[in-house]
Amino acid sequence: KIGARQMAWTCSGCGGCCGNFLPLSNGEINVIKRHLKTHPEINAYEGDAMDCPFVNDKEKDRCQIYEIRPAICKGFRCIDKGPSPELAKRMVQKKMRPVSMRETFFSNSK
After folding, report:
1. Pair type for strands 82-83 and 21-24
2. Beta bridge partners of residue 99, listed in sequence order
3. How do residues 30-62 score in pLDDT, each as one tens digit?
4. Using CA atoms, how far apart are residues 100 and 80, in angstroms rounded to an integer?
């Protein structure tokens, strides 16, 4: 059940929720890899090793893959300090596994 607080919430764009280790499904990994092949201008953010490599520091913590971002990113709400119970349940059902965003998408074998 979504409350008024969640419905009224808007992202501040602070990037505080963007981490390197995120739970992704194999389908999400494949979508991002295909997107990177058609968008060679996307480079890994060189900030802290624990930051998501898709954060674009030149544009004040904006996501470089926002339009195809994973479910965990779509469902994360800072005011709740994590994903909603519904999202957490779907993540388990979809067999998502924690992956290193840097290793998965920006290793030499990209």
Report:
1. unpaired
2. 22
3. 999 999 999 999 999 887 888 899 988 666 668
4. 23
Tell which phi-psi region holds residue 47, choosing left (phi > 0), alpha (psi between -120 and 50) or beta.
beta
Residues in CB range of 25: below 8 A, 6 or more apart: 70, 71, 94, 95, 96
The alpha carbon of 7 is separated from its chain's Cα centroid by a whole number of angstroms, namely: 20
Q: Tens digits of per-residue pLDDT, 62-108?
A: 889 989 999 888 877 665 555 566 766 666 666 788 899 999 999 86
Q: String of b and e for 55-68 (b: at least 16 CB within 10 Å)?
A: bbeeeebebbbeee
pTM of model > 0.90: no
**84 close to 78: Cβ distance less than 8 angstroms:** no
Say if CB 65 and CB 56 are below 8 A apart.
no
